User: Fold these one by one.
Assistant:
Number 1:
Amino acid sequence: MASRPYLSIPGPREIPLVGSVHRRFGGPLEFFRDLKENFGDAARFTLFNERFILFSNPALVNEVLLTKQYSFRKGKALEGAKVFLGNSLLVSEGEEHTRQRRLIQPAFHRGRIAGYAKVMAEKAKEWTEAQRAGSRVDLAVEMNRLTLAVVAETLFGSEVDAEAHVIAESLTVIIENFNRMLLPFWKVLQLLPTPENRRLFKARERLDQTIYRLISERRKDGRDHGDLLSMLLAAEDAENPQKRLTDAEVRDQAMTLFLAGHETTANALAWTWHLLAKHEAVRVKMKAEIDAALGSERLPEMEDVARLPYTTAVFSESMRLFPPVWVVGRRALEDVTIGDYEVPRRTIVITSQYIIHRDERYWPDAAEFRPERWLDEAAAEARPKFAYFPFGGGARVCIGDGFAWTEGAILLAMMARRWRFEEASDQVTELNPTVTLRPKYGLKMIVREA
């Protein structure tokens, strides 16, 4: 069967020269959902002079992210993000990406994550003990603070505690500007002395000062502190043992791990509590499992995660409905055929976790929050690969996925054992799809005894 030419792929009516810019940036979730509903598993659109295809079928995603992954490189947003993330694991390509992953992978081996799990439990204990019944909190903010404390300790030890507030503010500024990095004239836009740009580059400067100071101190110290920074500084390339990461390379990796290591998990946890506040029976069942597995006082360890299948299912189901990374982009390096569709060189292929995770073909009653679906082994085996891909896939699957799963279960267990959260009467919940899927107006909650 002959493949379908790019121009035969259906798509929306567009404005000359600018294409679908107003829809893509005005409401991307609604735009992608409309493309899927109106045009099926493949829809094309343009943004200025760039060609895009949205693929909304797991089999097509499998080809893009796995079987034909080397015909693609990272998408447009991360091309622009290089000015902040450097040539780190998140944005590097080809052999350089392979080299970096080989160097960094030992930092995420099971033995190391077991050590990080202790930090996760201790930070969650501190947070839990600081809460008061009846108090009002913004759980979106609080989960960012908690996961930032975890990643700061696991990445840098306890040496950034005093700067945590400034670091959190700086990371937020960078995240909020990711959509601007999608614009075709971003390289020019970033040179303008606008207030937004001044804030953006000030944020990078603050983070650079912190990270380079820590790198310098550690190089003088020379000891293994048991954290990710020590691993990065000591990392050797198996194929070239004399080749170590430079200060700039360590900075780039640390910046990326700092950004990705707390933002995604924070959003996943915030959305999980949003869902639990609306599904009391699920919360009660989860707490019963946690109490049975851990008792009332013991701090959980990594081995305990396997004893919390329902808690893990709750976290999985939350990331199905509200995937922290809600869209993935890849640019074609060559003309390539995906399924029956011709993808011309330089076309950007989009796949959206948010769209596929809510597809009724793979998720019956997809809009419903049902953690039990994750305990049905037969249903799990029947689902196609990439019907669920919160951490991406292929050679570029998130290197910290094991870290994130462990952190999600441990933090949920520690929090749920003591507290529940009731949605505040003035809470307005709306999705804010930037580089991650954030709650636009936060998540205002009242703290209650569990």
Number 2:
Amino acid sequence: MVHGGLFPSTSDGRTTSVGTMAIFRYTRGVSYQNLPQKNLPLELRDGNPLGIKRMLNSKAE
């Protein structure tokens, strides 16, 4: 098996899919609990800056 690129089966020798730095390539935030408003995507911020129709506490905004 060649350990290169983002996936174990690639042969790109500039990166590796193993090691401690690989954690940062494969992880992503899946919870926005207690995240500051400035770090949230615009779609999820309080005040609905994009004007997206959504439900909040069972009521349409």
